[in-house]
Amino acid sequence: MQVRGDATSMPRELKLFTGNSNRQLAEEIAKELKLPVGQAVVSRFSDGEIRVQLEENVRGMDVFVLQSASDPVNTHIMELLIMIDALKRSSAQRINAVIPYYGYARQDRKDQPRVPITAKLVADLISTAGATRVLTIDLHAGQLQGFFNIPVDHLFASPVFLDYFRELSLKNPVVVSPDAGGVERARAFAKRLRASLAIIDKRREEPNQTKLMNIIGEVGKRDVIIIDDMIDTAGTITQGAAALRKKGAQRVVACSTHAVLSGPALERLNASELDEVVVTNTIPLNGKEKICPKLKVLSVAPLLAEAIKRIHEERSVSSLFV
Q1: What is the tens place of the pLDDT at every residue in 217-270?
Q2: 62 contacts 93 by C-beta, under 8 angstroms
Q3: What element of type H or E holds 204?
Q4: Per-residue DSSP letter, 229
Q5: 15 included as an active-site residue
Q6: Buried-most residue among 137, 153, 172, 319 (CB within 10 A)?
Q7: Catalytic site residue from 202, 221, 290, 296
Q8: Are 265 and 228 in contact, with CB atoms under 8 Å apart?
């Protein structure tokens, strides 16, 4: 796959590399693009230091390196930074960091005295390492794009979810935001699904702990879709499902792009009032769907592959969501 720039530039070949965070997703994207995954060794020295060696030429090429900042987060971020540095020192013309799940995104402001803004720190590290562009999906907050000093293409998983839910026989569906911060996301999704909107009014008492207040909107005798950008410990989603059941919801489904699923998440989901939990493969589940049969995993590989193709060919990415 090639694209020509100006009259004096050579054609740029597209190459896709990946670290160890989500190789299966990289292989699915490569299949969509009809390309092989680039050959690279990402291993460890005996003392735990990360070792990277590219095993093919990337000089003058348009390179995409895929890596989710998933567990173990710090290891995967370091793999990404070192791979970017290796590509820069191997004279790649463009280095596009494809980060389906951007870790540390929740640390995006000083909400207490003397705390860091780690989301900005990680953005600076990626830019400094040598990335020329970032491609990501459903950032925790849209304004995180401003933390980068390089272009950011921010994708939304909503088309993947919409295709799935449109095939279901939903009864008078209502899309529910689990908190005030997610209202914009829920409203946009409800509009495209032609559903009504409701909001869960909650108050966070401690990190990873929430206290639900009440439901704003009508959910009685309806099929409900709770939509959020991520499920971490699953406290918000499961408490929300219980509150919606008490208000008479007929069917309760959770929908989330990033299945972080840390700590007691799987146990909570199995014991919850949720009928189904629909997530994507931005983070590999590594068999968690077998532990929690309620999980339904959708692939974002076609979405990412199309975005990569459009970036490579200098075409619009935003038109994917019109």
Answers
A1: 999 999 999 999 999 999 989 999 999 999 999 999 999 999 999 999 999 999
A2: yes
A3: strand 196-206
A4: E
A5: no
A6: 137
A7: 202
A8: no
